[in-house]
Backbone:
């Protein structure tokens, strides 16, 4: 029993360390700073309450321990109004203080921000789609935003309830079918921020990840203009040409690649797959080998994925050609893998 207790304690400490690294405390957005401030108050009260209760208990155990020669029951009493009122008023005051602080933080976090960059986020089993109407661009699985400008993510879901969460940027917000919810954040320095789905949504809930890539405003502008003008480059090698042919016949019904006849919207936009840091919605590192592995049998990487397996339809050479073509789709001059990770 004691061992289980120690294990539990160790787990809690580890969880605390992980949280300390990942969530709220190493905060990177103005919204998250509010949550971090709140957390400090809650922790301070928790320490005081724990100290008070545990201290009183320890004192009572020591002070009123049984001594040699003690006989019968110690003195008994029934009520102590002063103690009871104190024990009611103290928690009430603490809860009221936390209520006011929480309400203030919520108002600040939920206030619409003038001049924010609007991003339409659609959650699907098991990936994320991003549209930035103001720029006229669509990105899948990896959202690119500028540093220093507030972002207003307008969330919805195409199937079940998901939850949008980038631990280092802001709290989580549910993405609900038929409804619109908002998650607001502002990134304060460039980086590659991990995002997760935080609502159990099916067999690959834990694999429903994404990235927020925050760029300097200048780099962001350059990226957006380049993407707006982007047309997929022509295949350069016989292998890429073979890959393109396969792509247009097998994949174009679900996927979009700008500048080609591929305009499907059921699956992620693959226009600049070569620039992505991850594949399969944040699950695999973006390498040709991983891309082959994914196309071969998506469900092996992500159970429940809607994309069919191609292992029986395409040879290994076909798969490699497809990967070579897709990896060639990129905007030159952007290395997102070099961004610091959060
Ligand atoms: Cu989507 Cu969990």
Residues:
């Amino acid at each position: 029993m004691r061992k289980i207790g120690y294990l539990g304690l160790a787990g809690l400490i580890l969880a605390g360390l992980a949280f300390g690294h990942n969530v709220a405390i190493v905060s990177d957005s103005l919204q998250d700073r509010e949550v971090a401030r709140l957390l400090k108050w809650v922790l301070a009260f928790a320490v005081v309450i724990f100290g008070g209760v545990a201290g009183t208990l320890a004192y009572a155990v020591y002070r009123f321990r049984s001594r040699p020669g003690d006989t019968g029951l110690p003195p008994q009493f029934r009520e102590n109004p002063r103690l009871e009122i104190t024990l009611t008023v103290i928690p009430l005051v603490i809860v009221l203080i936390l209520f006011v602080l929480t309400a203030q933080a919520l108002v600040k976090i939920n206030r619409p921000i003038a001049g924010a960059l609007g991003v339409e986020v659609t959650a699907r089993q098991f990936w994320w789609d991003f549209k930035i109407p103001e720029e006229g661009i669509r990105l899948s699985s990896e959202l690119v935003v500028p540093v220093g400008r507030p972002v207003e993510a307008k969330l919805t879901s195409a199937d079940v309830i998901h939850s949008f969460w980038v631990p280092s940027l802001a709290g989580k917000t549910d993405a609900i079918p038929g409804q619109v919810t908002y998650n607001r954040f502002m990134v304060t320095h460039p980086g590659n921020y991990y995002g997760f789905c935080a609502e159990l949504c099916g067999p690959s809930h834990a694999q429903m990840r994404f990235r927020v890539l925050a760029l300097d405003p200048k780099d962001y502008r350059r990226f957006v203009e380049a993407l707006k003008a982007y047309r997929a480059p022509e295949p350069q090698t016989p292998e890429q040409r073979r890959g393109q042919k396969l792509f247009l016949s097998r994949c174009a019904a679900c996927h979009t690649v700008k500048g080609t006849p591929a305009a499907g919207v059921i699956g992620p936009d693959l226009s600049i797959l070569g620039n992505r840091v991850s594949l399969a919605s944040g699950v695999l590192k973006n390498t040709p080998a991983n891309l082959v592995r994914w196309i071969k049998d998506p469900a092996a990487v992500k159970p429940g994925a809607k994309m069919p397996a191609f292992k029986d339809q395409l040879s290994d050479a076909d798969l490699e050609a497809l990967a070579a073509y897709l990896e060639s789709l990129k905007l030159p001059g952007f290395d997102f893998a070099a961004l610091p990770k959060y």
User: Anything to note?
Assistant: Residues 123, 126, 162, 197, 199-201, 205, 208 surround dinuclear copper ion (CB under 6 Å). Confidence is low (pLDDT under 50) at residues 19-26. The first helix runs from residue 2 to 22. Residues 2 and 8 are 10 Å apart (CA to CA).
